[in-house]
Amino acid sequence: MPPDFTSAPILCVVGARPNFMKIAPVIRAMKATVPPIPVRLVHTGQHYDPEMNAQYFQALGIPDPDINLEVGSASHAVQTAEVMRRFEPVLDREQPAAVLVVGDVNSTLACALVAVKKSIPVIHVEAGLRSLDRAMPEEINRVLTDHISTLLLCPTQASVACLEREGIREGVHHVGDVMYDATRFATDRAEQSSDILDELKVGHRNYGVATVHRQENTDSPERLKAVIAYLQEQARKHPVVLPLHPRTRQHAEHLPPPGMHGALPEPCEHLRCADITRRVRHGMGRGLCDQESPLLRELVPVGEPRGGADVHLEAGSVVCEARTE
User: Fold this and answer.
1) Of 229, 257, 259, 274, which is most buried with the most CB atoms under 10 A?
2) In the beta sheet, which residues pair with residue 62?
3) Rounded CA gap, 219 and 205, in Å?
4) Contact, 242 vs 262, CB < 8 A?
5) Tens digits of per-residue pLDDT, 64-116?
6) Tens digit of pLDDT for each residue in 251-261?
7) Which residues pair with 101 in a beta bridge?
8) Which domains does the chain carry?
9) Which residue intervals of the chain are DSSP H helices?
10) Active site residue: 43, 47, 124, 213, which one?
11) How far is CA 271 from CA 215, 221, 276, in A?
12) Which residues of 200-226 are buried (b: 16+ CB within 10 A; e: fewer)?
């Protein structure tokens, strides 16, 4: 028998930027039902930059969190454990009908584990995505969350097939990609309010966007140097826009002068990023490019599409340009 989602609120959990993107259309849809599905929003604080949180919540139309666990940064084990420790009393107090988690960050798995151990149904949005790379912490989070979820909401038929291969058949639903809803919402707003392309002097020309934020790239001087060399190579063909992630900015001494490979803005507000990606022709990186850009273009090449781009590979909207050297 399916869970009763009208007798008590559903706790929707976010912890990091990818969660913000995906929870926004879900909450809007839940509140638009008749009668509205009661929702309580929990922010674990996994991404804890107040400025970043505020601008994403405002840009995406997300309500302020009802509960903030304020966990902050730590190792994977410590952060996951701390989210679990702080989330359990929330469940005891709120007595929700279900816990809804999105994506594959540490908060996703941590809150799902606490809920299932207390016999509270878990709803996983973006279920079934796989990179098949167990060296990725996100891959471990995805697999374990799927195996303890009651409802598994899949973006593609490929993700449904992944779950079936792992023996998961009950509670699986192909619902489409919430990133489509989130991206359309953001780009419609961006078109009306952003002039960042004029500021960067790339206009509407053929240009690329790079996202360099994965820890294995930014924290290794050798790998970061190789990434920058690749961007310089690409910049000889077309301008390259590099919105600086805070982690990348910490290692800015490894970056060459901006003019060597294109524009180097500070971390940019979400709608301005949406304006960049809605016209991009070349995506380099994971997250910004492999999930949002292909929803807006007929064809976008991306590098390292680990765990999300299968959505767009299935639709024929990306080409992988993996580099192994």
Assistant:
1) 274
2) none
3) 32
4) yes
5) 999 999 998 889 999 999 999 999 999 999 999 999 999 999 999 999 999 99
6) 766 565 544 44
7) 124
8) 10-176 (3.40.50.2000), 196-320 (3.40.50.2000)
9) 17-32, 50-60, 76-94, 106-117, 137-147, 157-165, 178-193, 196-200, 215-218, 221-235, 246-250, 270-277, 310-315
10) 213
11) 25, 31, 9
12) bebeeeebbbbbbbbeebbeeeeebee
Respond yes or no: is residue 47 known to be catalytic.
no
* Distance separating alpha carbons of residues 205 and 263, to the nearest angstrom: 14
Residue 256 preceded by cis peptide, ω within 30: no
DSSP string, 118-142: TT--EEEETTT-----TTSHHHHHH
Helix, strand or coil for residue 15? coil
pTM of the model: 0.78
Q: How many CB atoms lie within 10 A of CB 187?
A: 20
The values of phi and psi at residue 58, to 5°, are -70, -45
Are residues 208 and 234 in contact, defined by beta-carbon separation less than 8 angstroms? yes
Report d(CA 115, CA 98) in Å as an integer: 8
Quick one: 165 exposed, middle or buried, by C-beta within 10 A (0-12, 13-18, 19+)? exposed
| Distance (Å, whole) CA 102 – CA 152 | 10
Q: Tell me how far apart the alpha carbons of residues 208 and 45 are, in angstroms, rounded to a whole number.
A: 32
Q: What would the two tokens of residue 212 be? A: 């360099």
Residue closest to 122 by CA, chosen among 143, 90, 147: 147
Token duo for residue 295: 């929803």
For residues 216 and 61, give the distance between their C-alpha atoms in angstroms, rounded to a whole number.
32
Locate tokens 């969660």: which residue? 19
